[in-house]
Specification:
The chain is of the alpha/beta class. The protein has helices spanning 30-45, 79-95, 112-119, 146-154, 156-165, 171-176, 189-201, 205-218, 223-237, 241-252, and strands spanning 6-11, 14-19, 51-56, 60-62, 101-105, 108-110, 122-126, 130-132, 168-170, 182-184.
Length: 261
């Protein structure tokens, strides 16, 4: 499928998905949201792709939802309602993605842009990136999971502070509270993330898929149940070809060649 608001660049086993509305700081319109859903499906089903990186063209990662179609007071349907529905469909595809997804955050990342980044497995940010929630600045409420994910990532107090103030913070400050995993120099963001993604792409696709599933499902389970699930999945994984290949490679002192089964 061809895209108007996105760019996809395949770099070996790593695929980069760029939001491409630089004139709007990559704010997500309804059509852009629809394209995102289809892009995630395409990358999910592409066998050559083992790791996905999402980033933004121009001066920003994503400034959130495009507010040009904001509803009139009291309006309960129309463009915004359709946007939320399409956003839910996109979110369902991304959250069920079996492959690792990295957010490479450049420039402004706020509102729905922060929500998109938090749907990824983790964030790497450029030193000049500015990150925050920002919904409160426009009298808006999150619709992409910020009230749920942000407290789980940074803790309740920091989540309240970020959401109530609407402020944008330096990437280094967000790394200090765990929202960002690593901060890199501006000119090295893509090379650093590509190197990291290639490293991850060399691991067992099946193992990564199962790790991701166990982590995500375990967040919604009591610890005792999550531990039982881990043991069941681990026992099943021991019978996989990738697990056998890992064992052989260890004995033969060579790099394993994982096939994902």
């Amino acid at each position: 499928m061809s895209f108007k608001h996105l760019l996809i660049d395949h770099r070996g086993r790593v695929s980069w998905l760029y939001l491409n509305r630089p004139q709007a700081l990559n704010a997500i319109s309804y059509e852009c949201m629809r394209e995102l859903r289809h892009a995630w499906i395409d990358l999910r089903d592409r066998e050559e792709t083992r790791v996905i990186v999402v980033s933004g063209k121009g001066r920003g990662f994503c400034a959130g939802a495009d507010l040009t179609d904001a509803p009139s007071p009291g309006e309960a349907s129309g463009p915004q309602a359709s946007f939320l529905e399409e956003g839910t469909r996109m979110e369902e595809v991304l959250l069920s993605m079996p492959k690792p997804v990295i957010a490479a955050v450049n420039g402004v990342c706020c509102g729905g842009g922060l929500e998109l980044a938090m749907m990824c497995d983790f964030m790497i940010a450029a030193a000049s990136a500015k990150i925050g929630d920002a919904h409160a600045n426009f009298g808006a409420l999150p619709g992409g999971g910020a009230t749920v994910r942000l407290p789980r990532i940074v803790g309740v107090n920091w989540a309240r502070y970020l959401m109530y103030t609407g402020e944008l913070f330096p990437a280094q400050d967000m790394a200090a509270i765990g929202l960002v995993i690593r901060v890199v120099p501006d000119g090295e963001l893509e090379s650093e993330v590509q190197a990291l993604a290639e490293k991850i792409a060399g691991k067992s696709p099946l193992g990564l898929k199962r790790m991701k599933m166990l982590i995500n499902d375990g967040l919604d389970m009591p610890a005792s149940l999550a531990m039982k699930m881990e043991k069941l999945v681990s026992a099943e994984h021991m019978r996989s070809a990738d697990a056998a290949e890992g064992g052989r490679a260890f004995k033969e002192k060579r790099k394993p060649e994982f096939r994902g089964n």
